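Job type: complex structure
Entries:
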Amino acid sequence: MNIQKTMLQAIEEELQRQVARLNQPRTSRFYEMLTYHMGWTGEGAGSEATGKRIRPLLVLLTTAACNVNENLDSDTSTSPYWLRAVGGAAAVELVHNFSLVHDDIQDNSDKRRGRHTVWVKWGAPMAINAGDALFVIANQAITGLIEHYPADVVVKAATILNDTCLDLTRGQFLDMSYEERNDLNIEDYWPMVSGKTSALLSACTHIGAVLGNADEAGQEAYRLFGYHLGLAFQVQDDILGIWGNEAITGKSAASDLVEGKNSLPILYALGKHGKFAQRWNQGPITADEVKTVAAQLEAEGGRSYAGEVSEKETQKALAYLEKANPHGVAGETMLELANMLLKRNQ
Amino acid sequence: MNIQKTMLQAIEEELQRQVARLNQPRTSRFYEMLTYHMGWTGEGAGSEATGKRIRPLLVLLTTAACNVNENLDSDTSTSPYWLRAVGGAAAVELVHNFSLVHDDIQDNSDKRRGRHTVWVKWGAPMAINAGDALFVIANQAITGLIEHYPADVVVKAATILNDTCLDLTRGQFLDMSYEERNDLNIEDYWPMVSGKTSALLSACTHIGAVLGNADEAGQEAYRLFGYHLGLAFQVQDDILGIWGNEAITGKSAASDLVEGKNSLPILYALGKHGKFAQRWNQGPITADEVKTVAAQLEAEGGRSYAGEVSEKETQKALAYLEKANPHGVAGETMLELANMLLKRNQ
């Protein structure tokens, strides 16, 4: 079994172990909300429903890549070096999922990964509480690292996670407050997206490095790798949300143009006050208009600008990864994962 | 200045310092939501709006009461012994307030302490996020204790807080799920109220004892003091919610009978399947009916039963407090606070 599969299996087991804290007679329905959201139970349960677990994978790959002496792992009589960090990996995935459950209520989204969202199935009050519980369990997972790490390392990991969570709430605030504004431009993009995407990815590599016992310089290089990886990934995602196959063809309703998302190409063009901005400010774009409006946005430079930004952030990310100097198979796998995330051919 | 006033001032300053993490140009409206909820800004700001800060006070009194050598505090050149625990005190108050913000959305309550609730002023999506932020800041306050405590003490305090928060979500789940049931009885009361009230009060005295460097037996005695104090207080509150002056007189709409609250006297009588249960199961009780229904409930033993339970829990609480053997002025003040909470004359 390759390292990625071994890690994904360990992550899933740890997530299940953590969430099982609610598996008690009187709270079985509460537990069910969480196992449903995590993709393990209910309609459409399975690998499609769980998501790719990229964030916790990034934690464990980072921890493993910090292990200079890879031979430690070839001794099959002992657990792999990275396994003791699995609580940290579970914590970031639980934070991610807590934010999804609350996001879906806030955005009034009725589907996630093709399945009904928690609030649709159990109502908003229960879904708020289910999200809160995922957040609490994330915190329990991180402090639970005390079983395997010295207390000062646990406090450091928990501090990184907490700071990241505050960034997430800031990003969410900005995202929601932008809905009421019609004076947005490119300047408004970075504070929002730093909170919403990059903060958590940078927490993954930062926590992974702390749990891998990297020195200060190594921790900083991994942190910045995750941060710029997150930005590059988000901008790529913004481009695909308008010019990707799904967005431009049959499923036009899935286009960020229809959803009115404040993505980078759009904020860039809004600042230009051209034809695109004029149409955008007139009200919601329909599925029928998607092709024309996307073409207009491309003509005004939104696509090429975002492409340049994505490339620049990708280069930064890869430079920091090189500086971090990840070791062994984990290091190679991490580079593959980064390239996959950024839709790049190596 | 007496110790209680000094502590309350330190608590308020620490809370403001913690919440100021969001005091940044782009998030000033977000920051405003939190300062409004905490009672510092906006309509009706002031001591009426902040609440009594009983929970953080209990943390600091416990820490101070663990200090065998009270003379340390009489040296005015140094900070008082309890001051380094103020981050832990702020953390429990922030958890309490996070749960209030989410509660108000879940219960559709438009007023809290006579002021509009956060979701009424800024909408539910923003209020969910504001509650999340208060919770994050609570976690930051507890890990921030690393400035004054060894890492293992910080991890212990954070673990207690996290476990408590999971109890809170369990209690909240039960409370909400009871609304759909009509087969409730006294057995259903304890699991709900343990999570909703006692868990946090027991966390206050437990964390206070950990931060006061009490030994294991001392920590356990303080924890159980807080736990039974919480139960006794809740049952007292349940009694006042039906037979208190406010509930029975002019403001009858404030009666738990009208609000349909699953409080102890009510669950007791529901299990008796008498006239009260019959009326209760027929639908909402109006303000006009309050006096009659309260009298019926009293006749069926709901009031005397709750009174006995409250007295029993009070005795347990006081026995554990005696066992904990709190020292000095802080110890005396803690006993006064407990008696005040339990509406007892000493």
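Summary: The first helix of chain B runs from residue 3 to 19. Residues 232 and 314 of chain B are 5 Å apart (CA to CA).
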